[in-house]
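sanity check this fold:
=====
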Amino acid sequence: MRTLFAPLGLLLSFLLTATGPAAARDQSERLLFDVMFGGLHIADVIVVLDQNTATYTAGMQMKTRGVIDWFDDFTANIETKGAFQGDAGLLQPVPATYRRGWASPEVAAEMTMVFDPTDRIGRGADRIFDPRTGLDLKAEDLPWNNRQRPIPVIPDDKKAGAIDPISAFVGARRLILETGQREVRMPIYDGRRRYDVITTVGTPRMRTVRDIERSVIPVRSRMEPVYGFEPDGEDRMRESEGEMYFTADDRFVPVQIILGNSMFSSAMNLIAECNVDPAPCEIIAPVTKAEDEDQRLLP
């Protein structure tokens, strides 16, 4: 199960390069993807994006499906909120909060990372617990943990200049669109690990996805560990690469994402645009809002 969930976690990070044209365009998207692993449909993912020239909110929701659901009922949720700041024509995301949570029948985790408005460093910690009892658990005691040492606390100087994964991809996307850069490096801190993502843009081409031929723009991403990894974890991250294909139009939404290394290959395919027809996304519980907007998290 851990082997299957590891690529899903990386796919969650890679997917949100899809933030749409950012130059001066309001955009609201709700996209449904399938997740294929070894030819099996193992999960569904909904991507939600709302942005305008001043602020952004983006999130993801995942639920296991198909064969994998026979073994476990796993859900994951991620959301970030922030504002765009900087010079006109080159606005960059400044995150305010980053929230993530995941749950299986026996283990769950949740985290809220808040970015200090003064030094812009994100601070937060995972809470891992038994969803049946509510009692806290230690990451080091989980059955799949094989770390040789406790998870290190990352000092603030290692976090300086880094933003959450979703905001980082919002920023990379904006830099590519507004400056024409073909390669962008973004520093990321996800609450546990510090790493960089390097994104390279290719030339337009035709590609068939789910029997539909489209004009697409390929984008490749690779990850470089910086702090908080075991040596074998660093090796796996360095050899992993994401290959994404975006529509060659003014929406620039992803239609396919492929991630792989020597251990696995996974693919995500766009199957519905629920901002047009909401029905397909009902396979996953709809997005809700708490009374306090700041406490909102994709369910």
The helical segments are 2-15, 156-159, 165-179, 231-239. The chain has four helices and 16 strands. Residues 122 and 228 are 15 Å apart (CA to CA).
